[in-house]
Amino acid sequence: MNGDARARRAVFLAWLFAFLLSYFFRSANAVIAGDLRLAFGLDAERLGLMTSAFFGALALSQLPLGIALDRWGPRRVIPTMMLAGAAGALTFAAAGSFATLTLGRALLGLGFAGVLVGALQAFGAWFPDRRFATVSGLLVGLGTGGALVAGTPLAWLAATVGWRAVFAGGSLLIVAAAATILLATRERPSAGAAPAGSMPSPAEGSLGTVLRSTDFWRIALLNVFAVGTLLAVQGLWAGPYLADVHGLAPVRVGDLIVAMALGIMAGNFASGALADRFGHAPVAMTAGVGFAACHALLALAGPGAPVIALGALYLAFGALGSFGVALFAHVRAIFPRHLGGRAITGINLIGIGGAMLVQWLMGAIIELGRGPAGGYDALAYRPAFAATTAIGVLALWAYAPLVRRPLAGRPPAGATDGRPPSGPPPRPAEGTETR
After folding, report:
1. Which letter does DSSP use for residue 73 in this model?
2. Of residues 29, 32, 68, the one with CA closest to residue 51
3. Which residues of 160-182 are buried (b: 16+ CB within 10 A; e: fewer)?
4. What pLDDT band is residue 256 in, cutting at 50, 70 and 90?
5. How far apart, in whole angstroms, are the C-alpha atoms of residue 165 and residue 174?
């Protein structure tokens, strides 16, 4: 293995470590929801609001984060932010009130806000564009293994040492991951990047250029469905749904959350590779239709459903909902390299903001359906999943025009790194502003 290959492997593994932790912390509340309800007297709406603070802080940081990444690079920016995540884990572990619990959750979201987009920015420099979606899918697929630890293992740890000890110990791992990124990731241009002194001037593009693109908003809305609803369910409501509607015990709930996590891993592996081969839009549209069907089935499933059927549905939910990497690659393909940080963080902002909104909205809808005895049943959860199904249908309808174009993201003939070959520039995608 030559030095360049070793360096790429070190970069990949450093970001993978951080993303594993990010996925663990964002998913943990689905398993410890019962403990948090008992310890703090939380109803469904307050539980959803507190958990969504992770995504709220993550979303609010995205636009300044994109500018910072384009200016200073991920190696400097992301480890600094992760120290806030370590503080958040300690705050969450020591919380004695709902407000402190929410603050800890928000600090965790801020700390991990840049891990995914920072990794994508680093990969853009270290890997050729024709492999971008594949490598990104590999990162997210392996990184979602953090949700495996946030399933059955977390349920066991919470019962053995308590959830507070888990979060306190996790703060040390966050610091270790930040140090790993700092040591392993060297900034350098990729082989296809423009030489020094030839980068476009600020007048040739800005955040406004990104936000004026019609195609950006088509992709962003579908990202609300792909990322927003997947994280809202996996990060919280997947657990209470199984306990409240189907009466499953905590460890069995953890087992099915693991099934969803395995589906997410497989889906990310597949969607990245398929997007590089067949195009971003066809892959995203096909997976999105199946994902919407899974939401509808969760709305229709009632008490007494076989556990094996629920496990299969959770597995499919995770696999079909994991097409976000195709959308990241899609939006990156329609903007020039120097706007890559802004474009990626832009759709991430909207997707994560959607996760916060959906997570809270589902809690509010579920609370409205609370039974006279104080419990939650299928009638409480059914309209919540009907709402997420409707979000999916709307998003797919808006994205559909992109599917009818030539396969988005396929490298043009003669291109060496996924960018257009030399010669006249290609016609920009409809709705994409050029400056």
Report:
1. -
2. 29
3. eeebbebbbebbebbbebbebbe
4. very high
5. 15
* Pairwise CA distance, residues 386 & 236, whole Å: 17
* Domain assignment of residue 198, yes or no: no
Share of the chain above pLDDT 90, in %: 38
> What does each C-alpha distance from 333 to 168, 181, 280, 414, 417 come to in angstroms?
40, 26, 9, 16, 12
Number of folded domains in the chain?
1
Residue 369 has pLDDT above 60, yes or no: yes
DSSP-derived secondary structure for 45-110: HHHHHHHHHHHHHHHHTHHHHHHHHHHH-HHHHHHHHHHHHHHHHHHHHH--SHHHHHHHHHHHHH
Tell me the C-alpha distance between 366 and 45, whole Å: 8
**Residue 2 belongs to some domain of the structure:** no
Global pTM value: 0.70
Report pLDDT digits (tens) over 50-82.
988 998 898 888 888 878 887 888 888 999 999
Average model confidence (pLDDT) for the chain? 82
User: What kind and span of H or E run contains 322?
Assistant: none
Hey, what amino acid is at 322? S
Please state the φ and ψ torsions of residue 259, each to the nearest 5 degrees: -60, -40
* pLDDT greater at residue 80 or residue 420: 80
Segment 220-238 mean pLDDT = 90
Please provide residue 303's backbone torsions phi and psi, each rounded to the nearest 5 degrees: -55, 145
Longest dimension (CA), the chain: 71
Alpha carbon 260 to its chain centroid, in Å, reads 14
Q: For residue 331, give both structure tokens.
A: 């939006």
Q: 231 is in which domain, residue-wise?
A: 8-187+207-403
User: What is the arithmetic mean of pLDDT over 154-175?
Assistant: 92
Residue 412, in any domain of the structure: no
d(CA 331, CA 136): 13
The two three-digit tokens of residue 332, written as one number? 């990156």
9, 20, 31, 29: which is closest to 173 by C-alpha?
20
Which helix (H) or strand (E) segment is 248 a member of?
A: none
Which CATH number belongs to the domain containing residue 316 in this structure?
1.20.1250.20
Of the candidates 66, 253, 246, 64, the residue with the CA atom closest to the CA atom of residue 154: 253
Residue 296: how many CB atoms within 10 A of its CB?
16
Q: Is the pLDDT at 147 greater than 70, yes or no?
A: no
Is 211 among the domain residues? yes
Take residue 299 and report the two structure tokens written for it: 């709305």
Report the alpha-carbon distance of residue 425 to residue 32 in Å, rounded. Answer: 53
